[in-house]
Design brief:
By secondary structure, the chain is of the alpha+beta class. The protein has one domain. It is 28% helix and 26% strand. The protein starts with a strand and ends with a helix.
């Protein structure tokens, strides 16, 4: 496994990770968006994050210091994979199906980042002003420590 690309979209860290190699040498590429502690999805499992993404959210894990793939413990990485043979993705056993290019995974990852941004904005808009201000200040103080 290897990190292929890291960038920012909608204020969130995004990354593409190449998964392990299949028998025929094919490696799928998976997309992840890192959200901070004050994000509405921080407390949810993969089943509590409602977004329209390829194969649904298949990963939601906190980072760990020293972890090469997901190194920041103040970030929860939310992602999808491109290994859904039953949805037309490449099947290494049959040697057929859609092969995801890095460009297409970038687009899908940015789509995920946009949806996570919108989810958080909708959540914040429903809060009382003083609670919203507290949450946003908490995010600022977390960023200042970095």
């Amino acid at each position: 496994m290897a990190v292929l690309k890291v960038w920012e979209s909608h204020g969130y860290e995004c990354r593409i990770v190449e998964s392990g190699e299949f028998q025929d040498g094919y490696q799928s590429k998976n997309g992840y968006v890192g959200v901070p502690k004050w994000h509405v999805s921080w407390a949810h499992s993969i089943f509590g994050i409602s977004v329209d993404i390829h194969g649904d959210v298949s990963f939601a894990q906190f980072g760990k210091e020293g972890d090469e793939m997901f190194p920041d413990p103040d970030i929860k990485y939310i992602g999808f994979d491109t290994n859904h043979w039953n949805k037309g993705d490449y099947d290494p056993m049959k040697k057929q199906g859609h092969i995801w290019t890095i460009e297409k995974v970038i687009q899908e990852t940015e789509k995920l980042a946009a949806q996570l941004f919108k989810l958080n904005e909708e959540f914040l808009s429903r809060l009382e002003p003083e609670i919203k201000e507290y949450i946003l200040k908490m995010g600022e103080s977390t960023e200042e420590k970095a």
